[in-house]
Amino acid sequence: MTPPQDRQEDALANASAIESQYYRFAVGAEQAEFALRGDWTILNVQELEGIVEELGLARIPVRQIEFSCGGLQNFDLSGAWLLYRTGESLKRAGFNTSYSGFRAEHLKFIEDVVTMEQATREPPPVPWLTAMSLRFTRATASLLKESRDRYLWLVSIGAGIVATVINPRRFRWVATARHIQDAGVAAIGIVGLMAFLVALVLGFQSQTQLSQFGAQIFTVDLVSISIMREMGGLLTAILVAGRSGSAFAAEIGVMQLNEEVSAMETMGIDPFEALVLPRMLALVICLPLLTFIADIAGLIGTVVIAVGMLDIPFPLVVERFLALDPMTHFKVGLIKAPFFALMIGSIGTYRGYYVERSADAVGRNTTNAVVESIFMVIVVDAIFSIIFTELGW
Amino acid sequence: MSEAIEAGNPIIEVRNVVNRFGSHTVHNGINLTVFEHEILGIVGGSGTGKSVLLRTMLGLHTPTEGDVKIFGGDITCKEKGSGYLSDCHPRWGVLFQSGALFSGLTVLENVVAPIIENTSISKSFATELGRLKLKMVGLKEEAFDKYPAELSGGMIKRAGLARALATEPKVVFLDEPTAGLDPISAAEFDQLILYLRQHLKLTVVMISHDMDSLLTICDRLAVLVDKKVIADVTDVIVRHPHPWIRSYFGGVRGRAARGSNPEVQQGAA
Fold this sequence. Notes:
The complex is a heterodimer. By secondary structure, chain A is of the alpha/beta class.
């Protein structure tokens, strides 16, 4: 035992009283009295907890403790809880406890606290092995469920497309037009600017390298080919995934939270037909067009850097460009766009549709929609690279 | 201070409050006093500005004109940065109509959050207090670690009330506490409010359309009519000659509620 505690024990054993702003503690021959004073409320309960603990009530020589509460000014449930908790731990240590001097509401508090005692016990901690295996099982189960959901999602998209082809009048063209406006028309400026700047940067970087071999003229070839084959399509898809994929997930997710989707179902409106297919179609229409715009803007960038910086005369630039068989490269870039669109659209809408009912789930799903669709766009791009290499395009 | 609590001390004073949105006047000179230890019900037709009044009392909305005093200080935020409003936060609790539980936190974390934010209490002690509050409003322990999305409407209201009571406030504001609950749950909730008022010495300000609630537990009613407030003891308000109040309490629904009123009290007691 450390010296300060010894001193305190002595003090208690000598039957002297300890006093403070909050209590008066006196130990007699047969029983100890702990008189509460002042405020025992939520505002100072933390301080009181420390004080009571430091006092070390359990070390007194007598077995009987009385808590008298007549001197209390303010007393609330937090204070009552602290008092009750102290009493209980003493009881467990073999003391007899009693309470006196309550005003009615104080006593009622304590009674309330006593009846609620069960609730405040922390549940026993789960052993780590059980916790681990529980987590593993849950993760596996959710993975399986997600795979099934995704499979069903793709099936539904396929079925929706077939249904639309069979009966095009059911299709929601107005909604589609709105999404073309939001996802396509509104993105023209940023897509064009991005492609233009990327072409400038590419041209700038490549001409410094190529000039070492005196081959600046090939800058035109390098930049225009990379824009048309890869950069235009890929960067546009990534930009649209960030712009529209996230918007789809958030819009549909919030509609789910608002029970708008359920409302549609009860009215006999197929939410798939009303929400998912128009967005998908809008993207499938917009992404190739945006890619086309990106290509054009990129080529303008190429011309700007070739004529402006490399002093290649404009007719020569055009001549070199036409010698590249530009239509093939153009085709290679554009063919991929609708597939990118399918990826972005299906992942965005899926993430919105299967949202749990909470606000942070919407945020999480939106993030996942963007990350997954960008990843899938790159995977699809890689697959196409292999195919085009095999075809010799 | 506890000795001083007896009905009679004004705790909230709304003085000549005017609320105007564009050219549309919602409140035109409202005067309302809430006394300590009473349950005041705010009643009014749709669009009469019950919620605006509540938001004004909470400092969420600055009135066009007039003063709102709570615990003796002005909270209309006319003097920016006076800091009075933040003093009020631990002294009042609010139960919003849809619960407004933080969806990213479990029920228990929702109740513990205001304690930790407003006091220096340690996490473990705050958690104990949180569990106590949740038990106090009658939630089962299984619900403590659930997220709000997994709760029923009644449980959300109870959890919201527990959160409103987390920092041992003097005043609680309840926005339609029994809306969306079945009559049995609603009656239980009424009794819970009465019980808490009695033992925690609360002052309760509630907006309600639930006739049973209003007539069973409210000491006084404040009716929003003609852009003003008519406030008086419940029995007097029920017999008030104003045509809107008469049709409100005199209608079929009102009569039914008054007729069944004693039964409700007995049944839930």
